[in-house]
Structure formats: C-alpha cells, structure tokens
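Comment thread on ticket #2218

A.B. wrote:
> Attaching the input chain for the structure job we discussed in standup.
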Amino acid sequence: MRKVPAVLLTLVLALGLAACGQSADLITVYAGIDSAESPTPVSNTAFPLAPFDKEVTVGIAARNMNAGFFYALHTSVQSTLESYGVTALLADANDSAQTQSDQIDNFIVQGVDGIVINVATPEDAVTSALQRAAEAGIPVVGVDSILEIGFNNFLGFVGGDNFLLGRGIGAYMAEQLLARNGVVEGNVAILNGQPNPIADLRVAGFWAGIESVAPDHGLKEVAHLYGGAWNEEAGVNMGEDVLVAHPHLDLIMGTADPFVVGAMAAARRMGRDEMIMGAVDGSKIALALVAEGTPVEVITLQDPVGLGQLSSRILLDFIVNGNTPQYRIMRLDHPVATPQNIDALYDPDAAF
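C.D. wrote:
> Ran it. Output below, let me know if you need it in another format.
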C-alpha cells in the first residue's frame, strides 16, 4: 500500500494541494479519458483481470448497507477485491454525504491505493473530498450513483441508465392498458423513497415510456408518495396510504422494487388487485411476484453483483496494470422482466 507522509496529507486536507508527485500524473491521466458515455452497454465481464502479486488496499465508500440492492452491490465490490487478495476497507455512510466525505478523508489519511464509491446525495457535498483524493494520487471509480455533473477527476463510472430503467416500465404498462381496455387512461400512483436525481430520472423515464406507446394518453398522477427509506416497510406504509386514499388505481410505479413488494403485501390484505404494478431493481423477491402472476407484472433489472465486479476490476486494472477505460461513463444493459420472460430471468438462488 502506498504510504503518504502525514505532513503532506495535512496540506491536502487543509489547502487542497497535491499530496505527492503522483497526483499531477493522475490528473493528467483523468484528462486523457473520454468524458462521454459509452455508446453501447458494457458487459459485467469487461476488464478481465489476471491474478497479481501486489499488496493493494482499496476503500469502499458505501452509500448505505440497509437496502438489499446496496448491500448486494457493496458486498460484491468487497468480495471481488478480496478474491484478488486486496485489503478492502468498507465504510457505510448511511446515506449521509457529510459522513461519506469524512470517510473519504480517512481513506486518504490511511493511504489507500484506490477508492470505489457509491456516492451519497447531494453529490456536490462529496465532490471536494473526491478532489482531495485525486490530488493525493488516489484513483476513484464510481458505481451506481453518478458523481456530480461536471466533475471529471475520477477514473470511471459504471451504473445503470435510470431513464431507461423507468422507460421500460412505462412502455410495458401502457401496452397492457391498451390491450386490455383499448385506451391508455386511469389513475397512477408513484411510490418513491426520497427526492433525488436517480429517482427523478426513473419517473421521467416512466412517463416517457407511457408516451412512446400512447402520446395522447389520459393517465393522471393522483399520488406521489415519499417513504423516506428504501425498503419494504416504506412500501407497505405507502401502499396502505395510497390504497385507502384511492378506491381505484390503474398503475402503481415504484422507483425501487421494495416499494411494490411492500405495496403488494398491503394490497393483498385489502383485497385489491385491479392495478398493474412495476418497479426498478430486480430483486428475487420482486421477480418472484412476477412469476406468481400477481399485479406486480414488470420489473426492470439492474445487476448489483455485476456492477460491483466491474467497478472493482476497472480500478484494479489501473492500479496494477495502468490501464484506463476508453470512456469515463459506462452502463450495463437492463432486461425487462414480465410474465412472458420471467422463467429466463428469475433465479430463486440469486445473491440479490
């Protein structure tokens, strides 16, 4: 592990100056990476990496470890790093940008060789710490949650296309309404966790998917609830509230699938099954509901395990071999799970 003198670290943290000669070279490396997004989805098998004999320590700046998706993502990063003999230091920010910023500074003081970060919101509250890491010569790879727009001092980012994740849900739901009723109209409820750019993109994509099938649709958003947390309990609470408030719903869209899993439990207790439900992420619990033939009919899939593997290999390939990605922004593909293809996509033994 590269050791950075404490006096220079003090300069980094206090003045924002470069901590070592390597830092200027790293900024130059960043400047040479195409800041555009890869025009095609990347495979989670990209950046193959041979075993290596080198001591490496990597800090994992986890957004949180509570939601199932985030737990699977961050533990995938950890297990992938450890499979190469890397020392992985995992820090849970518990959705606090200030905590995450402090944790990045701790990684700098510890002299880690690299950082994988799932950035907490607001993203701009973490940027200064990431800049300090860059100036200290520590390469950073972002995963899942995009870093602050306009900040380019990171090696790469791998994640989902949140607009397309939402669009797949909207398009499927509109097609189903059209096939069943001859029109695309009715009442829509959105179940959300907290206001943030990722959720906003998923909701915008959902409506774009509706409009791609029925530009003159008559759907009305009668509720947009925020559960605070990203878990099934929040889904149950929001589901109960919206079902009591609205005696008839045609669509329920969740910005994360724990919300429709929870809402489905509430709907069963209340004997409600008139609506079509759909959400983003692809946990095996949500996919099981599609397989069972419940109102949860559409789930757009992310791959937290694949995201963790790919982000780890991108970072290690640079640390060990000096290789950089062609593009700074890379996206994985997103299958859309429906009753028609669920047998091929549902794995009851999946990690997530």
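A.B. wrote:
> Thanks. Noting for the ticket: The chain has two domains: 6-159+304-332, 162-301.
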